[in-house]
Write a structure and sequence with these properties.
Blueprint (H helix, E strand, L loop, with lengths): L6 E4 L3 E5 L3 E6 L9 E4 L6 E8 L5 E11 L5 H22 L6
Antiparallel strand pairs: 1-2, 2-3, 3-6, 4-5, 5-6
Length: 103
C-alpha cells in the first residue's frame, strides 16, 4: 500500500517515496482525491495517477496526484528537481493568495 512506503524526501507540498523499482512523487495538495485514471503524464513522460478537480464554474480539470519514476531511468536528484519546482510553485501561489498581514 502506498501509505506504508518509506519516505525518502518530503517538503511542505510533496513526498518522495521508495516504491521498490520506482520512485513515487506524491503531491500532498491532491491527497484524498479519487484516482480516475492512470496514464502517461505528458509533461514528465512517466506513469501517473490522475484525478479530476472542478473550478468555480463547474469545469473539470485533470490533475496529477502522483508520478511513478522508474529507478532504471531516473535518479533521486532528478525527482527532487521536479519536487522542488512544485514546492516553489505552490509556495508562490500561497503567498499570492494568502499574503501575510504585516502592515
Amino acid at each position: 500500500m502506498l501509505l506504508d512506503l518509506p519516505v525518502l524526501e518530503k517538503g511542505n507540498f510533496y513526498f518522495i517515496k521508495d516504491g521498490g523499482s520506482q520512485f513515487i512523487l506524491e503531491d500532498k495538495t491532491k491527497r484524498g482525491l479519487t484516482i480516475k485514471e492512470t496514464s502517461i503524464d505528458e509533461k514528465l513522460n512517466v506513469k501517473a495517477d490522475k484525478g479530476m478537480i472542478h473550478d468555480m464554474d463547474g469545469i473539470g480539470h485533470w490533475v496529477v496526484i502522483r508520478w511513478y519514476f522508474s529507478k532504471d531511468s531516473h535518479d533521486l536528484s532528478e525527482i527532487l528537481e521536479h519536487a522542488q519546482a512544485m514546492e516553489k510553485k505552490y509556495t508562490e501561489l500561497r503567498e499570492l493568495t494568502c499574503p501575510d498581514d504585516d502592515g
